[in-house]
Design goal:
single chain, about 170 residues, mainly beta, Elongation Factor Tu (Ef-tu), domain 3, SH3 type barrels, 6-stranded mixed sheet
């Protein structure tokens, strides 16, 4: 769904006594989540918009003070809550560039027309990103110019240079 909220983090714990919380940032670089405001927090009845009053990277997490939570006990209810943003909050990309969430759930086929499965997720390996494709079995397909022939968001399909028996 093109306008569905994009999950960018999760509240993982409390920090201090003034209602600050620890956030596990799903961004490639820790702390990038602080560049988005407002955030959407997932509640039982849907998404709730909140503003970030202040925030900073702290060790392997991010510490934030959210508008509306001033003490440790009230912030306790937030632990485990997913954090999302609206798609329009993301920076525009050049042609041929895609965010990971755009690739997830796309069908993957090779040049012979073989159905390899659906992109379950994308992982970072250091050398290049890798598509985790789930079909009759799991395949790990490198996201490189040599392997990715075409990404078509309109048809929901990625064509790859990848044999069925790889």
């Amino acid at each position: 769904m093109p306008d569905a909220p994009i999950i960018v983090g999760r509240i993982s714990g409390l920090f201090g006594v003034r209602g600050q919380v620890r956030v596990f940032d799903f961004s490639r670089c820790r702390g990038e989540i602080l560049g988005y405001d407002p955030w959407l927090l997932r509640h039982e009845d849907g998404w709730r918009e909140v503003s970030v009053r202040e925030g900073r990277p702290h060790q392997d997490t991010v510490v934030v003070q959210l508008e509306g939570w001033q003490d440790r006990e009230s912030a306790r209810e937030l632990i485990g809550t997913e954090i999302a943003i609206r798609p329009e909050q993301l920076a525009k990309l050049d042609n041929g560039e895609y965010y990971w969430h755009q690739l997830e759930s796309l069908a993957v086929v090779n040049a012979a027309g073989d159905d390899l499965g659906i992109v379950e997720r994308v992982i970072e390996t250091g050398a290049n990103d890798v598509l985790v494709v789930r079909g009759e079995r799991e395949r790990l397909i490198p996201y490189t110019p040599k392997t990715i022939v075409e990404v078509d968001l309109l048809t929901g399909q990625i064509q790859v240079d990848w044999e069925l028996d790889f």
